[in-house]
Design brief:
The complex is a heterodimer of chains A (237) and B (276).
Chain A: E1 6-9, E2 12-16, E3 21-27, H1 28-36, E4 40-44, H2 50-56, E5 59-62, H3 67-71, H4 76-99, E6 104-107, H5 109-117, E7 122-123, H6 126-130, E8 139-140, E9 142-143, H7 148-153, E10 158-159, E11 166-167, E12 174-179, E13 185-190, E14 195-198, H8 218-236
Parallel strand pairs in A: 1-4, 1-5, 5-6, 6-14
Antiparallel strand pairs in A: 2-3, 7-11, 8-10, 9-12, 12-13, 13-14
Helix pairs in contact in A: 2-4, 4-5
Chain B: E1 4-8, E2 10-13, E3 19-24, H1 25-33, E4 37-41, H2 47-53, E5 56-59, H3 90-105, E6 110-113, H4 115-123, E7 128-129, E8 141-145, H5 150-155, E9 158-161, E10 168-169, E11 176-181, E12 187-192, E13 197-200, H6 228-240, H7 260-271
Parallel strand pairs in B: 1-4, 1-5, 5-6, 6-13
Antiparallel strand pairs in B: 2-3, 7-10, 8-9, 8-11, 11-12, 12-13
Classes of the chains: A alpha/beta (237), B alpha/beta (276).
Chain lengths: 237, 276
């Protein structure tokens, strides 16, 4: 009997270019980060089964959106349908996993989604308001003393950056635990529930294509999240 | 209790070269409509864990041929095709053969579609020819069922379906029987004499061109720019990540008619389910 926790990872939308039908995609970087750090990755597919997924899985990761496959070759209306489907699917998953009080981790857009789901808002003018682009750049963040991220990575780790939006108003129960040099939220925890958010991409801060090369070790984040899922799994039995 | 059914995805490189798993939305919808809970496999090394967790396996179609080394791959005298000429995905073959073997060892149901059916045939020692078609959703093939098989029970004497798989069956593997043919006698469906293993060469999932209606001129790369009002409304929704009420969401898609094949397969899985 396999004792590893089952970790679900949400899909992003893409287009089947042969038949113009809706496709679901998952970058292997997420799956690899989960597998290498002791989880069994399993991908939920239909929002109508969200409660079944929350019952059988030990934790949920909401990944970042893969932009280019969604945006490059399709009409604005197709883009809206595809992003709407991802948006509602992720809401259904969040609702079910929060109800079941199972651990949830959001990465980049997934982190923003959790924040908004809990009543927070986003800054959609990031480049204008903070004066720098957060696209493919490495930078230092400042972590709050005693927070999970500080205990894992120390006070001033270097992370990557692939986002145009950022958290503005934190959602209910959300405590910002790390900020960028411009003061944007880079990580959060929840006051009561095992919910974590990271604006950077820990799945790209590991393995052969570590970004940035001098950045903190992304595996540590996955390892601790999967351990949290695993401990709760044991307690529940 | 709803059976948990694992679907194996296709794999592709993204435009910036990062590999991703890909699955048509319609495969999972077909299973949900048949009363199952669909999930997608991800880690190639977790096949044993997947076979333990799930009640059944679906092997999907895809654009890559099956590696000729996986079956008896002599040149097809009828077509002159040499299987080695075609694009293959040895990684997908290996990943799916491990899954397939794990589910068969556990005696759990397996459904192969297109490429998936060809892989089942290869595992049981059958042969393939690389002479299938690329197909198009509007090109329907007349499919005749074989007497006394599950296919006859499901569709009577026959049905019409979209056949688009690049591989096709030459000789069937050990223990397998043909459940459907086309007019020329090519094998379009299979079953196993002792195991709950079935396969079809056509696409029973709602194949769907469900996004083409939102295309501006039915061709990619010619997107009309959004109007000023549209852009404003989209920005406002982005602040709270609210779904757009003016376009369809992912909700309610499961409320469609169930295909007889997926219902049959979900039943096979439910009868043996460990989630009871």
């Amino acid at each position: 009997m396999d004792k590893r926790p089952v970790i679900m990872i949400g899909w992003s939308s893409c287009l089947d270019d042969q038949f113009y039908s809706h496709g679901m995609m998952l970058l292997r970087a997420y799956e690899l980060a989960v597998t290498v750090n002791g989880g069994v990755p399993l991908i939920p597919l239909d929002g109508s089964c969200a409660d079944d997924y929350a019952e059988l899985a030990d934790g949920l990761i909401l990944p970042g959106a893969q932009r280019e496959t969604v945006v490059s070759a399709v009409s604005s209306q197709m883009k809206r349908v595809m992003s709407n489907r991802r948006e509602t699917f992720h809401e259904d998953l969040l609702k079910a996993f929060l109800k079941a009080e199972k651990p949830v981790m959001g990465i980049c857009e997934g982190c923003q989604k959790i924040n908004c789901f809990l009543g927070g808002t986003l800054n959609v003018d990031l480049e204008k308001t903070c004066g720098v682009t957060h696209w493919n750049s490495g930078h230092e963040i400042t972590c709050e003393n005693g927070s999970l991220i500080e205990r894992l990575w120390g006070g001033t780790p270097v992370v990557n950056s692939f986002h145009n939006f950022a958290i503005e108003k934190p959602g209910e129960g959300i405590k910002i635990t790390a900020v960028s040099p411009q003061g944007n939220a880079e990580a959060f925890e929840h006051e009561r529930l095992p919910i974590y958010g990271f604006q950077f991409h820990p799945e790209r801060m590991r393995g052969d294509e570590k970004l940035p090369a001098d950045g903190a070790d992304g595996d540590v984040i996955f390892k601790v999240f999967i351990r949290i899922c695993s401990e709760r799994k044991v307690t529940a039995r | 209790m709803k059976p948990l059914i694992l679907i194996s995805p296709d794999e592709r490189p993204s435009s910036d070269g990062r590999p991703y798993y890909y699955l048509k939305r319609s495969y999972s919808l077909a299973l949900t409509r048949a009363g199952a809970v669909p999930v997608m496999a991800a880690d190639p090394s977790s096949y044993e864990a997947y076979a333990e967790l799930a009640d059944g396996l679906v092997l999907t179609d895809g654009v890559m041929f099956i590696s000729p080394g996986r079956y008896d791959s002599a040149v097809d005298p009828k077509t002159g095709f040499t299987p080695f000429d075609y694009p293959v995905s040895p990684a997908r073959d290996a990943r799916e053969l491990c899954l397939l073997k794990a589910f068969i060892d556990a005696k759990k149901p397996v459904l192969g579609i297109g490429r998936g059916m060809c892989l089942i045939n290869a595992l049981f020692g059958g042969t393939l020819r690389a002479s299938g078609s690329d197909g198009h959703p509007e090109n329907l093939t007349r499919i005749m069922t074989a007497d006394g098989t599950y296919a006859e029970e499901l569709w009577g004497r026959g049905l019409e379906g979209v056949v688009c798989c690049r591989d096709s069956i030459k000789d069937l593997g050990k223990g397998l029987y043909a459940s459907a043919f086309d007019r020329s006698g090519s094998i379009l469906g299979l079953g196993h004499e002792d195991l709950p293993v079935i396969g079809v060469m056509w696409h029973p999932e709602p194949l769907g061109t469900d996004l083409i209606m939102y295309s501006d001129n039915k061709e990619p790369g010619h997107a009309a720019p959004a109007s000023k009002e549209e852009t404003e409304a989209m920005r406002a929704r982005a602040v709270t990540k609210e779904p757009d009420p003016s376009v369809p969401s992912d909700r309610g898609l499961e409320e469609g008619p169930a295909d007889p094949l997926f219902s049959h397969f979900a039943r096979l899985c439910a009868e043996r389910s460990i989630h009871g």
